[in-house]
Amino acid sequence: MPDKPHPLLPNWFVHLRVLNDNSKEIIYFAMFIEIIQMRPKLATVIRDYTIITFGLLLFVLGWQLFLIPAEITGGGVSGISAVVFFATKIPVSITFLIINAILVLIAIKILGASFGVKTIYSIAVLTVFFAVFQNILEKPLVDDTFLSAVLGGMAGGIGLGVVFSRGGSTGGTDIFAMIIMKYRNVSPGKIIMLCDVVIIASSYFVFQSPEKLVYGYVSMWVVSYSLDSFLSGANRSAQMFIFSTKYEEIADFITQEAVRGVTVFDGVGWYTKENIKIVMSIVRKKETSAIFRKIKEIDPDAFISMGSVMGVYGQGFEKLKL
C-alpha cells in the first residue's frame, strides 16, 4: 500500500513517483507551487490595502492641513473628535480610537468579518496618521477660511471615495452608509450628510460662532459632493445609438471585443424613406473611446448618438437592490 501523500502536495503532484513522497525536494517544490497559485489573490489584497492607505492619508491631510488649523468642524467620528479637541485639547487620535473601537463591532456583525478587518486596519492607520500629523501646522495652510473648508472637504471626500471603492470604511457614520448601501440604492454622501448635521451643529456650543457653523456645513457639503462624484465617476454608463450600413461588424465588435450586449432595431430614415438598422448598446463611459475608434475604422460615415445614463442594473452592471 503506497504511503499517504504529504498534505502540502497539490493533487496533480501526487501522481509523480520520481522521488520519494517524503523527500524535501518534493515538499519544497510543492510549497513553491502553492505560493505561486496564491500570488494573484495576495497581490489583490496588497493592492487593496495600499489604495485604502492612500485614501486614509488624503482624508487625514484634509483635516490636519485645512480643517483643524482653521477651527472648522466636519462630520463623522472625526468631527466629534475635533469638537472634543477644540473643547478640551484631548488629541483627535485618542477620541477617534475610543469611539471607533465600539462602533467597529457593529460593522463586523452586520457587514461581515472581511469588512471588519479592513475597518480595523483603517481605524488603526487613521489613529496613527492623526497622531503623526497632529501638530503639523499651527496656523491654517491658507488664510481664507472658506477656501480651507472647501479644500479640506475635497481631500476628505476623495479620500473616503478611495476607501469606499475598496470595501473599507473609516468608521463612524461611514458604517451606517455602508450598511444602507448594502441593501438600498441610496447615495452614500446623502446618508453621511444627514448623520453629520447634528455633529457639526454641536460645534456651536464650543465656538459660539454661527460663522464657524456655516463653514462646517460648507465642508460637509463638499465632502458629500466629492464622495459621490468619485464613486459614480468610475461606474458611469453611456447609452449608444449607432446608425450604420455596416451594423453587423460594429455589433460583432461590441459583443466580442468590448464584451457588452447589443440590440439591433429596424428603423426608417424619414427624409430618405430608406430602411436602416440601429445598433443600441449600454457601456461604461471608459469603454466608449475604444468603441468610437473602432466605429471610425469600420464606417467613418456612421451616425452616433450617445447619452449619459443615470442607472444601469443587471448583468455586467450594478445589482438591483430593493
Number of strands: 4
Regions with little confidence, pLDDT below 50 for 5+ residues: 5-19
Strand content: 5-15%
Rounded to the nearest angstrom, the distance between the terminal CA atoms is 58 Å
The computed structural class is: alpha+beta
Cα gyration radius (Å): 27 Å
Shape: elongated
Please describe the topology of this protein.
Elements: H1 24-67, H2 76-88, H3 92-111, H4 113-132, H5 145-165, H6 173-183, H7 188-201, H8 204-207, H9 210-233, E1 237-243, H10 247-256, E2 263-269, E3 274-284, H11 288-298, E4 303-309
Antiparallel strand pairs: 1-3, 1-4, 2-3
Description:
The chain is an alpha+beta fold and 322 residues long. It folds into two domains: 52-233, no CATH class; 237-309, 2-Layer Sandwich (Alpha-Beta Plaits). Helix content is 60%, strand content 10%. It has eleven helices and four strands, in the order αααααααααβαββαβ. The protein has helices spanning 24-67, 76-88, 92-111, 113-132, 145-165, 173-183, 188-201, 204-207, 210-233, 247-256, 288-298, and strands at residues 237-243, 263-269, 274-284, 303-309. It has a four-stranded antiparallel beta sheet, covered by helices on one side. A hairpin with a 4-residue loop joins strand 2 (263-269) and strand 3. Helix 2 (76-88) runs antiparallel to helix 3 and helix 3 (92-111) packs antiparallel against helix 4. The longest helix has 44 residues, at 24-67. The protein is elongated. The termini are far apart.
Please give a quick description of this structure.
The protein has helices spanning 24-67, 76-88, 92-111, 113-132, 145-165, 173-183, 188-201, 204-207, 210-233, 247-256, 288-298; strands at residues 237-243, 263-269, 274-284, 303-309. It has 322 residues and is α+β, with helices and mostly antiparallel strands.
